[in-house]
Amino acid sequence: MGVMKIYLESLGCCRNQIDSEVMLGRLASAGHQICNDPSKAEVIVVNTCGFIASASAEAVDTILEMAQYKKEGSCQRLVVTGCLPERFRDDTIAEALPEVDAFLGIGACDDIVRAVEDDSPHTSSGNGTSRNSSQNDSPHTSSKSDSSRTFSADDSSRVSSSSPLILLPDPCARAFQGYPLPRTLTLDYSAYVKISEGCSHHCTYCIIPKLRGKQRSRPIKDITAEISCLIQQGVKEITLVGENTTDYGFDLVKPDSNIQYLRHTSVIPSVKSVNLATLLEEVSYSASRTFSGVQSQLRQQEKVNILDKNKLHDPSELIWLRLLYTHPSSLTIEVIEKICALENFCTYFDVPVQHASSKILKLMGRNYDLDLLYRLFESIREKAPDAALRTTLITGFPGETEADFKTMLKFVEDIKFDHLGVFAYSDSEDLPSHRLKNHVPEKIGEERLDIIMAAQSRISENINRKYMDKSLKVLVEENPDEGIYLGRTRFQAPEVDGITFIYGSGLEIGTFVDVKITETHEYDLAGEHSSYDPSVESSLIEPRKPTHL
User: Fold this and answer.
1) How far is it, in rounded angstroms, from Cα 347 to Cα 339?
2) What is the pLDDT of residue 300?
3) Residue 1 contacts residue 8 (beta carbons within 8 Å)
4) Using alpha carbons only, how large is the chain's radius of gyration in Å?
5) CA neighbours within 13 Å on the CB side: how many for 287?
6) 225-235: buried (b, 16+ CB within 10 Å) or exposed (e) per residue?
7) Omega before residue 328 within 30° of 0, cis
8) 311 pLDDT more than 70
9) Distances from the Cα of 301 to the Cα of 229, 294, 305, 318, 517, angstroms
């Protein structure tokens, strides 16, 4: 098969985005042409999310939308990858979606070139060659999208004769990528980097361990090599991610009773054998060293004059590092202090707590209680008073009473998070939480979500007022209209937090600029760059409504 035009639609979280970028990189390296218009693509790839019911429904609807290009566009082959085929591993996904030519699970992302190029017929077998699934792997659940496509664990009928390519290897068997590795970035100035895969926790509401396998920490040398490569390409912001980033290294050391004790009861001591702090230090050093090398090379070539000599060794000016998805039970004081001490790390703590009622946390399978949460955030505030705090919560979890909800609401009002996202509980038959008693009506869960967000709106608005008239460093991301730009500060993470509107002109996307804040809103800020000309007409884009994420 010759060179083909390929379009990829990436759904879901930033971990999925990384997988999508790696797949695009492999396809481009194989000689194929990446295009941004699905109507012109000869092959369409949909990298799906299946974390909750609404994500599965969105994935199915997107697949069906892309399938229309087989009739109306140039599409000859439709490939579905990621969480949806992984969650619904039995062959009935092929029956429910006959439009699809290949299904790749999470562990098969590296086979994307094969899936795109292989147009030979595949017979249903179950022998692990073209497919690797079994009835025991099936979730024994059903999920229906708006398009009325249903997946079922009932495999009384199978796809026979000519059937799609189905690759569903064990996700734990997938090797971490080495470097250099082809990767087509979504943005040329900001990138996510995985430090681990999978999760060894067993939260009752979460399907992730079943989809991505147990916790596997990526070698430090591979992480720093990727970061160096990204900085050499011009990336200015690097965000470290994983299912639980503060569990990094737990699988690299022998089980230790003291570590287990710390994870379950305390955030105060540090544990030398748990090496996330070491990783952060290595990442910081590697980023600083690589940036200095790039800077020196550019100066020698006399192509770009980035900094004056006084700022030559201050990488915090032009490199931002950020850690997301920490776990309350494994976020140690050592890690907190390390983030505060390393200049190129944003003092930003993303700690998804999910709930605050000790009773509900136990039902969720979270190995901490309300007391630990208060002590954790008190410790962070003590070490870093100006740090930005972010969390996520779930309302309407089975067994949640009005008293449990009020405990969570009070916790939110006490801690005063800079950023907060909320989900209403999403039930599914393949989740342990499905078997819990006293399920909360969906309407009540949504009402409680709205109450939490209303409280957070007031909190966020009050917090943002402290930035009025201050000068902040902002990463420029978009130029939607003449005289106005969109960007983010160090305390605004990509995609999930508020943004900063910038009044100015001639600004370059992907660069850092100083902005004097002149307006504050519930979730967003606005300010003037030195290039701002009041005579140029520009209207402030309406502050965005929260997405609950």
Assistant:
1) 6
2) 67
3) no
4) 24
5) 30
6) bbbbbbbeeeb
7) no
8) no
9) 20, 11, 10, 19, 36
| 350/491 Cα distance (integer angstroms) | 11
Which among 432, 369, 438, 437 is positioned nearest to 203, based on CA atoms?
432
Beta pairing class for 143-144 and 150-151:
antiparallel
Q: Six-digit token pair at 81?
A: 């990858």
How many angstroms separate the CA atoms of 439 and 447, rounded? 15
Query: Cα–Cα distance between 247 and 257 in angstroms, integer?
Result: 15
When pLDDT is averaged across residues 141-150 and rounded to a whole number, the result is 43
Kindly state the average pLDDT of the residues 151-160: 38
pLDDT score of 486 more than 70: yes
Instruction: Tell me, rounded to whole angstroms, the distance of Cα 166 from its chain centroid.
Output: 26
Phi, psi of 117 (to 5 degrees): -90, -25
CA distance 491 to 504: 21
**348 in Cβ contact with 381 (< 8 Å):** no
Instruction: Identify the three-state secondary structure at position 406.
Output: helix
Chain-wide mean pLDDT for the chain? 85
Question: How many percent of the chain have pLDDT more than 90?
Answer: 69
**pLDDT digits over 5-18, tens only?**
999 999 989 999 99
pLDDT of residue 542: 61
Q: Read off φ and ψ for residue 9, nearest 5 degrees.
A: -105, 120
H-only helix segments in 162-274? 208-212, 220-232, 257-265
pLDDT in tens, 199-254: 999 999 999 998 899 999 999 999 999 999 999 999 999 999 999 999 999 888 65
Q: What is the pLDDT of residue 536?
A: 67
- The helix or strand, by DSSP H or E, that contains position 532, with its residue range, turns out to be none
Are 440 and 396 contacting, i.e. CB atoms less than 8 angstroms apart? yes
Cβ-based burial of 144 (10 A; exposed 0-12, middle 13-18, buried ≥19): middle
Ordered alpha helix ranges (H), 302-324: none
- Reported as a pLDDT band with limits 50, 70 and 90, residue 544 is low
What b/e sequence results for 407-439 when a residue is b if at least 16 CB atoms lie within 10 Å of its CB, and e otherwise? bbbebbeebbbbbbbbbbbbbbebbebeebeeb
Residue 390 to residue 421: CA distance in whole angstroms? 8
Give me the residues paired with residue 517 across strands: 527
- Enter the tokens of residue 521: 């809103």
3-state helix, strand, coil in the chain (%, to 5): 35, 20, 45
Q: Are 505 and 532 in contact (CB under 8 A)?
A: yes
The amino acid that residue 452 corresponds to is I
Query: Are the C-beta atoms of 47 and 82 separated by less than 8 Å?
Result: yes
State the pairing for strand pair 216-217/196-197: antiparallel
Residues forming a β-bridge with 528:
503, 516
Output the pLDDT for position 182: 85
Torsion 231-187-38-96 (CA) sign:
positive
* Confidence check: pLDDT of 431 > 90: yes
